[in-house]
Write a structure and sequence with these properties.
mainly beta, globular, four-stranded antiparallel beta sheet, about 55% strand, single chain
Length: about 120
């Protein structure tokens, strides 16, 4: 029943922008901490950004000032606005939903972001 459906990934040039979306269903979206994580083959999945149910945000140092996470509880959707993209941002990006109350931790399917000239 639980689904995290991602969209917005693709190929962009360095300095370009991309907006990732993750639409959640099957959960009480408003009580979940939502997040974006990235993973490169052969490496562990890493935090990109999180946003709490109250709207507090946290970012990896490497993306501060360039990426913005936001959520629209009415749409059960979390976004990642990615600006000033660098080749080092190339990775698979995963949407995450976490709740202590629900004792749940869900992941999206992952979407490829490639930054290359």
């Amino acid at each position: 029943q639980v689904q995290l459906v991602e969209s917005g990934g693709g190929l962009v040039q360095p300095g370009g922008s991309l907006r990732l979306s993750c639409a959640a269903s099957g959960i009480i979206f408003s009580i979940y901490r939502m997040g974006w994580y990235c993973q490169v083959p052969g490496k562990q999945r890493e935090l990109v950004a999180t946003i709490t149910s109250g709207g507090n945000t946290n970012y990896a140092n490497s993306v501060k000032g360039r990426f913005t996470i936001s959520r629209n509880n009415a749409k059960n959707t979390v976004y990642l606005q990615m600006n000033s993209l660098k080749p080092e941002d190339t990775a698979v990006y995963y949407c995450n939903a976490f709740s202590t109350q629900e004792r749940s931790d869900y992941w999206g399917q992952g979407t490829q972001v490639t930054v290359s000239s």
